[in-house]
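Lab notebook, design round three. We kept the backbone fixed and only want residue identities now. Task for the bench partner: fill in a sequence for the structure below.
Input C-alpha cells:
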C-alpha cells in the first residue's frame, strides 16, 4: 500500500511569521486580521505568530527571508496588495514580489505562502480579502506536511 500524507490543519505547536505590506493598507490590514484570526482558529497560539510590517510588496521577500531563517518560525505568510494603476509599475512590483517569495521558499526550505493580491482594480482586491484565511490554512497544512515527511 502506498504511503500517503493527507492534509492536516492542526495548528498546535506551529509557529508562523507574517510579513505584511503597508501599501494599500485598507486591503492588507484587513487581510492580516483575517489571517491571524484563522491561524488562531486552527490552534496556532497568539504568542507563536510574529508579524512584521514592511513598506510595500517589493519589501516582502526580504522580510519573509529574515523570518524564514529564524529557528522559531516554521512557515511564513507574505501579505500584500498590488493594484493596477496607470503605469507599468504594477507589473514590476507583482513580478518582484512573486519571484522573491518563491525564491525564499526554495532557499530556506520552509513553506512561504504567497498572499499578495495582484488585481486590476480596488474592487477586485476588496472582494479577495477573504483569501487571507486560505493563506493561514496553507501555512498550517504545509508545516504539518513537512513534519509528516520528516517522520517517514
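Proposed sequence:
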Amino acid at each position: 500500500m502506498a504511503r500517503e500524507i493527507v492534509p492536516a490543519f492542526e495548528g498546535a505547536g506551529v509557529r508562523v511569521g507574517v510579513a505584511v505590506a503597508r501599501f494599500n493598507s485598507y486591503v492588507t490590514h484587513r487581510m492580516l486580521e483575517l489571517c491571524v484570526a484563522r491561524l488562531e482558529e486552527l490552534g496556532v497560539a497568539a504568542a507563536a505568530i510574529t508579524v512584521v510590517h514592511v513598506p510595500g510588496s517589493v519589501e516582502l521577500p526580504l522580510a519573509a527571508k529574515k523570518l524564514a531563517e529564524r529557528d522559531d518560525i516554521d512557515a511564513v505568510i507574505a501579505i500584500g496588495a498590488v493594484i493596477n494603476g496607470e503605469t507599468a509599475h504594477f507589473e514590476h512590483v507583482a513580478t518582484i514580489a512573486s519571484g522573491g517569495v518563491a525564491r525564499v521558499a526554495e532557499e530556506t526550505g520552509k513553506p512561504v505562502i504567497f498572499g499578495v493580491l495582484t488585481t486590476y482594480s480596488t474592487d477586485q482586491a476588496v472582494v479577495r480579502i477573504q483569501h487571507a484565511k486560505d493563506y493561514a490554512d496553507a501555512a498550517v497544512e504545509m508545516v504539518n506536511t513537512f513534519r509528516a515527511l520528516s517522520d517517514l
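Keep this in mind before ordering anything: The radius of gyration is 15 Å.
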